[in-house]
Amino acid sequence: MTDDTAQTQAVKTYRLQLLICAGTGCVSNRSFEVRDVLLEEVKKQNLSDEVEIVATGCQGFCAQGPIMIVQPDGIFYQMLTVDEIPHLVAEHLIKGRPVEKLMYVPAKGEQPIPKLSDIDFFSKQRLIVLKNRGLIDPEKIDEYIARQGYKALAKVVTSMSPEEVIEVLKTSGLRGRGGAGFGTGLKWELARKSPGDTKYIICNADEGDPGAFMDRSIVESDPHAVLEGMAIGAYAIGVGHGYVYIREEYPLATKRLHIAIDQAREYGLLGDGILGSDFSFDLTVHRGAGAFVCGEETSLIGSLEGRTPEPRIRPPFPAQSGLWGKPTNINNVETWANVPVIINRGGQWFASIGTESSKGTKVFSVVGNVTNTGLVEVPMGTTLREIVYDIGGGVQDGKKFKAVQTGGPSGGCIPESLMNLPIDYERLAEIGSIMGSGGLIVMDEETCMVDMARYFLDFLRGESCGKCTTCREGIAAMHDIVADICNGEGEPGQIELLRDLAETVGDASLCALGGTAPNPVLSTLRYFQDEYEAHINDKKCPAGVCRALIHYRIDADKCKGCMLCNKQCPQDAISGEVKEPQVIDDEACIKCGVCRESCKFDAVLIE
Ligand SMILES: Cc1cc2nc3c(=O)[nH]c(=O)nc-3n(C[C@H](O)[C@H](O)[C@H](O)COP(=O)(O)O)c2cc1C
Ligand code: FES
Fold it and tell me: pLDDT tens for residues 68-77?
């Protein structure tokens, strides 16, 4: 893992430092309980003066949680439980023998890897936004400051004019990480030049994409980076007050944000006369109710003002008339968190990373049928293959890869043949997908692409605010057609109808929710049309997913008559004697798949 600031060593006064993850993923796997038992055990063994225990933010490898790193050697432990702690303390902390059975094993039969720096998931990433992850306690401002925190803000308020700050941002080529990819420096300049004494900035932490957790993780693991970025933006644009709009479902991130704001105020880094200058700036945290459309900037502004969160036609853009009619600049969490590093290292340094049109790194949440689920930061221009295979460890359970979906619910599904594509904003758009905010869902051979399109359309039809007819009715109509196809009621001509509808919804919708909603349909039609045709013409689901089009059958040659499927079937649809092949009654079968899951001999087939 390349970290673009100096790596910290363990704090000198302690022999060992235990960095236990307290991100949402690990907390839900009981990392606070593990931390408490560690504290007790360390105390019991009289090690409190030698061993420091630090609760950090998300370290990125959430599926392996709770995870812990022991410094200074960088030993990585995963899937910790409270029961294992006494043994771990006795072996590693007292006898100096790291515990192998708690280490990461890349694949079945391979040797455990002791050090975090030797694990591909970490070593192949490049950290700029996430540079502090796992290294600091996000609830302690001193730890952020110790890693160059607020240095950029100090530099800006003491030695740079607002115009110079904007120029650095423009040179860096930073583009908004919330989806649209608009140039950040240019956007700041428009807001700065917009007439008016009162202006606002907003941090968009709504993050409504299913499966996405980049922004939550950044706020949880490094809240001060977001605050510092916002303070710098406020200085550049000429703003005295800002808002963080964060979804209600993010309680831990919200708590850490409040703690960070209080600490920054206490240190004179927010409030009146920041760092003794005449620049004043403060923040309010606003909790959003969690509708996907609230992430759209004009809806978000409506929600902040207490109105129904519906998008409105632009222009005027928020930079001209935003919150309460005042010039407003809105940026995504990751965009703001990039700003301090750019000021510290320079616009040209940032612009040297990435592709011709997309600079810097991008954080992705890699989920789905992938071996290493987690949060990944890579330079723009990294190929999908590198993300899915080198970092993600490939498809789970040795299955074959089918597609990767980028860009959230309104992104596109990309096939194996395009896995070597270096990803940036333009290239993803060329192949029918979008960068979106960085959701990346891996799908294996057992995924039905028609069913996948149905799933995303179902989400989008539920989340459409309903204000414009094309989006409201068009997405529902596309959903109904795709659902009919999945249910075996597809008819010839529906593929053409879907294409027409998709183009109309994309062209005529009011905001980008409707504008991008056709992507799941159009991309699956573009790369997987044969699956639609099999559903419509042959009444078959090649992936064996769509219930109306499949039948379960027991292979008599493979079945050993163990009766497990027979006992598990909730419908009593399986009959047969012990040690004899079992038979499924097709009429009684509800195709729940329990028999297939329970069979140890792969004898249950889908036809
Ligand atoms: C339906 C919809 C949902 C959106 N959700 C988010 C979101 O959750 N977070 C976000 O930063 N941007 C989201 N956006 C994009 C915002 O409208 C806006 O472009 C972004 O916040 C600007 O910040 P940036 O320039 O830093 O990307 C969404 C857009 C649409 C159309
Ligand atoms: S929450 Fe612990 S690694 Fe993500």
Answer: 999 999 999 9
